[in-house]
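Key idea: predict the complex, not the pieces.
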Amino acid sequence: MSPSRSLLRRRELLGALGAGAFLAVPVFRQSLAEAQGAAPKRAIFVQWPDGVPSACFQLGMCTVNELPDHKYFDFDGQLASFAALKADTIIMKNLRAFAAEKNSAEGHEAGMASLLTGRSSRGGTSVDQYIAKQVGNLTRFSSLQFGGYPYTFGGPQDRISYADGFDLAPERDPVAMFEKLFSGAAPAPGGGTPDPAIALRLAQKKSTLDFLKAEIAAVQGTTGAAEKPLLDLHLESLREIEKQLTQVAGAAGTACAPPDQGGAVKGQYAGSEGDAIDVQVFAKLQLDLLYQAINCDLTRIATFQWAPSVEVLIKYDWVPGFSAAPDQHHAFAHDHESPANEAIFQGIQNWFTSQTAGLVARMKATAEGGGSLLDNSVVMYASEMSNGTHVLSPLPVLLAGRGGGTFQNLGTTFDAKWAAHNDLLLSIAAYMGAPLASIGDDGLSKSPLTL
Amino acid sequence: MKPLLTSVALIVGLPLLVACSGNAQDSSRRSDTANGQGNNGQGASTANGTGASPGTPGSGGSSMGNGSGAAGTGTGSSANASGGNGTASGALAQVPGIRRLSHNEYNHTVLDMLQTALVTRAGDAITKGIADGFTQDSSVDGFDNSRTALGVTPSLAGQYADAAEKLAAEALTAGKLTALAPCAGGAEDVCASDFVRTFGQQLFRRPVAADELARYAALFATERARNDYATSIRQLLETMLQTPQFLYRSEYGTPALAGTRVLTDYETASLLSYMLWSSPPDAELTAAAAAGTLATTAGRETAARRLLQSARARLPLQYFVTQWTGTSRLASVIKDAAVYPMFDAAMRQSLLDGQEAFIKKTAWDGDGSIATLLTGDAGMLTQPWLLTVHAHPDESFPIARGKLVRTRLLCQELPVPPKNLMVVPVAKDPNATTRQRFTAHSNNPACAGCHALIDPIGFGFERYDGIGQYRATENGLPVDDSGELTATEDANGVFRGPGELGTKLAASAEVQRCVGRQAFRYVYGYSAGAAEIAELSPVLADLKTANNNIRELFVLFAKSGQFVTRTATP
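Result:
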């Protein structure tokens, strides 16, 4: 049995970052498309677990048909960290988690399965992957999946991205992600003379990939319908790997340096292994890598999953009261009977939010064209459930980013009038230039919301 | 699975709390039955199935289970394969005929084929493997080998490429090249072809077809034009380690009677070998496949018994037991240091050792019977390694233990808590026992219906805390460990402690059937549907005759017609 791969390999991280063992890919933030005048668009989907604390629970006032008003989901409450960014955000109100409500699985699983798919059963294709199919070819990575959670989990409460029914696990190893992003035998852009050894290795890898694609096709030809989903996925994956080999970001633009190999990233990580892992440093590293991937235009589509919907392992010892209380996040998510526990739960949820706000602020501080990186992005900060007690609707969602100037409701609250959240997914797909007629269960999506 | 007490399922307000989703890592997808394949997303059902005919040996395309060699005998056996011993004859449902290696199987496979140092083992257990860092697969129904969920995602394709590069570089260092691909004075293209033929038979678990050899010859020529011989051979190996023929094991079969397909003998050899060794077939099993003996019930029985005699079968048997009992995640389970400060690395290791020793003693060295598992050495249900997993980080959590018995030992499906309704926790209380707290909680009429199925079982475990330590008192109060089993076919009644519970379950036909279904899940990589459960009846009847020995259960699977018969796909 393979042991858990949850243990952060600190020595390996330091080794990888310090040894210069890999070939840095020169990366450029601006793409060809941008050079031709169209600003690149990005969509980032950030999930946090178990929704919003709400006073109605303490008061026993929440009922099925009279759903919580999410008074705490505001700039005075859970979104306080976003207060300075208010002009770049839209708070979604009255958004219905219709697909999750229809799911016969329990609430946490149902919420995760539907968050980006709009489906009432597990599988299908999530909105990030629909978009990736349309515009992923513009960047080295069609999409990236990050985990902010350093432990193994697995299963339906731990996945939000799906491609044709196969779940895409979040990457939870900063070393591996760093290597994936910033190493590889890619040619220098801009016409420099490539290292002959690198060029040869690249040719070999391409030759292997061509061979493998032909083998998949040969197997396709001699097997049937039941094998096709597996082989289709495999073929798509090989194409993606091939693209990563040959395609660095656009041919023109501002050079974007990968994180300093011996400096910043390495210096931030002072964690240890196993139970003593420093979750705060881990999360900061992962968010930094996400930012770098977007900033360097290595991808335009990413998911960041803070934690599984049932989270019992992290010690949020920096949250006041947590270490003295005999419970874990999931228990607090369910517990709204004691104000003290409610406060601890709020503290944890606020931490997810503050870290996410840090990412958004960094995007805003990054100049692009005449504006900022954030201007040409949409960040969907969402939870899979309204509240950790299995209340699903309304889905708490904050949108950040100006959507390339197309959003009209920035700085305000948008009343979705109990539309299924599928409509919001349609809006983001449309913004990204990958419009969909529908997403998820039949009949749940009507039309994109005019944000 | 049949829903348990459907009327109860309608009751709202089921406060399973943290239990409503079970233990964290036990949150597997609920089913991957043939009808409910989670992975058939949009469009999957419209796939066209042209060209479903198998490759003709030596000529046609490289179908996964290319039948060069013994395919003919395999096909011919379809009618009589199901004849002997009254075993089941039905074909497996329409499920993918290719199964991606689980990460565990990948580790075993590359260790076996390449003797790589990138996989290390202590005794017969793998302690560290090159696949450990691969993108985590979803577990389904508690098992890591779902044939529908395990695919090659972009991340995994990249990891396979990296692993292949490392494995090939290691396998063909200067010293080893002469052993694997010698070419002293020979024509290099012939040497390369010999390498592909001999090594490919291992990697693909069947002879390499002529058309495949031709494709590899072309690849070699391309590489040799720009590299030396050694580098070109390495490139061949690196490539072979990423092919679908290596990464998936085939159960595609060849056309047989009445809409069925029957496995080739090489495919049968792989199924036997991965079932019992988690590894590819050895030379003797491969020879049996080549000789055509695996097409018969007797041939498969002989092969299965030989594999089971080997020490290499012990670990896979342990994989089955730990995945069936939901305890395979013991290595990563985390406890709250404030409540259980003694739970450290040494204690975890001692639990892992205890798990291995218990399964070895009862299932491997012992008579292997379900009764011995449930009653030997005080019984599995009293073991700290099992109780530690089926608990919460900070308490015993009786709901998890009741759920363990219902879902894993009785194969009963429990209703889920309703949505859009508050599910609130059982508050901690330093002046009450866990049982008292949970009893009060479940007295709520809205909760009582479902909890009546779960809590009376779980309460019987209460003399074992969250890390399986015995306790006669809790918070200064005596612990009541009386329990009751209800809503079972043949095991109802009161009991005291998990030892007595194990004794009650040990004789239950419902439990025996459930173990059969769990083994089906392990062997075939998906959960049996209604038709397949019906087909299991003769196997289970034979199992009873064999004293419910779970080792014998795998022999019975191997003997069944089901083992080699698949429903043909369009």
